[in-house]
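Handout, page 2. Input:
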Amino acid sequence: MASTPARPLPPAGDATHAFRLGGTLTVNRVGLGAMRLPSDGWHGRARDAATGRAVLRRAVELGVNHIDTADFYRSGDGALRANALIREALHPYPAALVIATKVGPVFGPRGPSPAPPAGLRALVEANLKSLGLERLDLVYLRIGVMTVPHGESLAERFEALAALREEGLIRHLGLSNVDAGHLTEARAIAPVAAVQNHFHVAEQDEATVLDACAANGIAFVPFGPLGSGDTDLNEARLARVARRHDATVSQIALAWLLALSPVTLAIPGTGSLVHLEENIAAGSIALSLDDLADLGTTGSVHTRS
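Output:
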């Protein structure tokens, strides 16, 4: 199966291919997730740093102006960190580049645990320092680990981040790994610009959160858009649609996300130049209603011309 060739993304002002985060930051709807830059998988062996920097530079050349990262994205030995690679490759940053990061978990010998509200300032400041910034464009409050902690209040933690926003350390706030109730709770405290949940063509449990985001002009930014390594996306329905477009299964999975709603943004992660170009090219694939029906799409969709 062939891969749709990469070409530069349309200008960020193209309304079909762009989104205004928080109403102020215009980003292309295909971005780059930084988790796989330092290692192939969560805290795996370190990748080649020069390749990681090359991926970042090539992404910007192709029109990516939205990079999603976290200070805790690093190789297993801690020697290579995503934020350091971003700073080394791109600082001083292009004026239009939006860097999003996330805080919430802290990592110890027994794994991740939630930071208390008073501990969030240190996590924000660590991101500022490692990225070489005075203000972060978008900071997500991440709660839980992989499963959404239904019924858990996030109010005190979100209030702490909202206070840092008022100080000018953060431009926009987001939420990660939340349900619709969490979104309502947070929006009563401060504006929410984006939600980042586990969501892809084979995992659509968070469709109600997507609907809430679409109704309120909030970006929906799935993490693990290609399955996060825990789901086999190479199934017959994806392959069938991929053959129609002379594309790869991964490209169709990304195109599907973009077709769901004007508020969906894709942030596929990669440490490979080849895969980067493949992911960027997915932004030019327009799926038909028949394609979407074959993919088992739930709810309403937005098709692109």
